[in-house]
Amino acid sequence: MQKLSAILLVVLLCATSNGVLSFTDGILPNGQFEYGPKPSQMKGTRVIDPKAIPNWELTGFIEYIKSGQKQGDMLLVVPEGAYAVRLGEDASIKTKVKVTKGLFYSITFNVARTCAQEEKLNVSVSPNSEPNDWGILPMQTMYSSNGWDTYSWGFLAESNNIEIVIHNPSVEKDPACGPLVDSVALKALFPPRRTNANMLKNGDFEEGPFVLPKTDVGGVLIPPNIEDDHSPLPGWMIESLKAVKYLDAEHFAVPKGKRAVELIAGKESAIAQVVKTTPGKVYALSFVVGDANNACEGSMIVEAFASKNTLRVPYESKGKGGFKQAVLKFRAVTTRTRIRFLSTFYQMKTDGSLCGPIIDDVRMIGVRYAKHA
């Protein structure tokens, strides 16, 4: 017993020898900004002390916003808790986090546009050896009806100690103009490998960004033009002009497992993956098409592309959940084949928010013979 206690003590000392344990999953310390400035550190709603918000360092025109606060005739809503921060012209918030060097991570946070149509945010992590490697999140399109969207962004940790920066690069006539940010979270990602049962990585979408548990925004957006090397959806590229939405079984109807992907912007919302293939060999690409039980109704079509083959899968949604299986057989013509999915039509709920079909359980295997491939 004494020997076991000594071993546990050594393990504990090793784990804490560099200070705080590495962060894995969840809301960052004061990531919901519920601990805020003292009255002496503010001028109206503006925070004038760069270290007034615990765990964060502020630069530029930052406002500390209380839920229900008005901006002219507009009511500013905070999705979770009582407070959020607003990033004005060229403003940024920065926090330090202890992570595990060499692991992949994804950042998740809520954001709302408050002024201009062209608002955007830059997300970056340092240290970073790759030049110009930051996430640009355009907010011309708001995907929810309540004014708040949840975004994610992925990165590779190059140090055990990193700095996360969320920056508003916009320059407006009103320096206070800028997006609201709330509920900043982090999750370690463990990209799945290809197996004999599935040549695709993360075909079931179980590995992905942190899903905020208590907000009513619904789902996590994975922004457009995301390559697979640092994707918050490991193995997949977002090969489109608009985002796709990552869904969890706690809030939506998911055909299999706990996660799925919703194609929310027609042909402007697509995911893709490149897989090694043998020219002349026949493969079977199977997947599930359905709806997320989120009141997204109507005639839907998911298009699947592989090599020179295309399969259009119709699905009539009543918006109450359900799914169907589909299989695309194709003959590879090159050593690398791009697998791609998109939605043919734009879909919209009655509240005006974008939605679409979901896909899940994507599998690819080699087959000996396919008569019509």
TrEMBL record:
Keyword set, alphabetical order: Cell wall, Glycoprotein, Secreted, Signal
InterPro entries from the UniProt entry: DGR2-like_dom, Pectin_Meth_Modulator
Location of the protein in the cell: Secreted, Cell wall
Chief place of localization: secreted
Signal peptide: 1-22
Occurrences of domain DUF642 (ranges): 26-187, 199-363
Protein name in the entry: DUF642 domain-containing protein
Organism: Cynara cardunculus var. scolymus
Lineage: Eukaryota, Viridiplantae, Streptophyta, Embryophyta, Tracheophyta
